[in-house]
Write a structure and sequence with these properties.
By secondary structure, the chain is an alpha/beta fold. The chain contains eight helices and nine strands. The strands form two sheets. Strands 4-1-2-3-5 form a five-stranded mixed sheet, with no helix packed on it. Strands 8-7-6-9 form a four-stranded mixed sheet. Strand 6 and strand 7 form a beta hairpin.
Length: 272
């Protein structure tokens, strides 16, 4: 055999040796994998087969044709869970009903009763007469500045005299009989300070003049007695006016006791 053929032969034997080594390695690797499969390990081919298929993306929606509008797809609405059923409360008289808790009382009835007693006591206090003329505290309390100056206003200071205001003049009411015959009551009297009375001038006093229909005589009533006025001149000189004359029954006039005439030297008074 020539020298050229020897290297080729040597080369073929080397290749065979390498292939044999590779085959031996593959066989050993196959045995090792089988041994691992028996102990629970998964071989590479089995793992490939058991892997899930790759997810395929959903197809894209086709674009709408020109001039058309496609409404977006509505998402399914999640259903709301129904509210829990409330337990029905029993009504009064039904089984299981319990009365509500009693709230603490504030004793309203007792408070109203005490308030009524207090108001009643105040009303009695301010209306009790505090002077010998029966003027109550309610008549004294108002300020004189709050009074309206007018004709017929009845005023009284610290003295017992009572005045009635007429044309900005104070006319003294000479007696209790004159006071009553004028139709006045103690509720009409306003008690003021003496300085308030000095604002006005004094006028002619007011007396009660009595006359009955069948008699021409005029009498002045003073302290429960009738005083005969002698004539018209005396009537005018005493400052009387016809507006002061009160007409009464002749029987009433006769029942009144006689007082001294006016003037006192006029003689015995005539019978009305």
């Amino acid at each position: 055999m020539s020298n050229r053929e020897r290297p080729e032969e040597n080369q073929g034997s080397t290749t065979d040796q390498i292939l044999d080594l590779l085959l031996d390695a593959l066989v050993e690797r196959q045995h090792a994998r089988q041994a691992q499969g028996k102990t629970g390990a998964t071989t590479l081919p089995e793992q490939i087969e058991t892997d899930p298929a790759p997810s395929v993306p959903p197809p894209r929606p086709e674009p709408p044709a020109s001039g058309q509008f496609r409404a977006p797809a509505e998402k399914p609405r999640a259903r709301k869970a129904p509210p829990p059923k409330q337990q029905k409360k029993p009504k009064p008289g039904e089984e299981g009903w319990e009365p509500p808790v009693r709230q603490p009382t504030i004793n309203m009835g007792k408070m109203i009763g005490r308030l009524a007693i207090l108001v009643t006591a105040l009303l009695i206090l301010v209306n009790i007469p505090v002077t010998r003329y029966g003027v109550s505290l309610a008549r004294i309390m108002p300020e004189a500045s709050s009074l309206i100056i007018r004709d017929g206003l009845v005023l009284k200071g610290s003295s017992p005299e009572i005045y009635v205001l007429e044309k900005d003049r104070l006319r003294w009411i000479s007696s209790l009989d004159a006071f009553e015959h004028m139709g006045l009551t103690w509720e009409d009297v306003h008690v003021v300070q003496d300085q308030y009375l000095t604002r006005f001038e004094k006028g002619a006093p007011i007396h009660v003049l009595l006359k009955c229909g069948t008699s021409p005589h005029i009498y002045r009533l003073e302290s429960g007695e009738k005083r005969w006025i002698k004539d018209i001149d005396t009537f005018i000189s005493e400052g009387h006016v016809w507006e002061d004359v009160r007409f009464v029954g002749c029987t009433y006039m006769r029942d009144l006791p006689d007082g001294p005439p006016i003037p006192e030297d006029a003689g015995p008074p005539p019978e009305p």
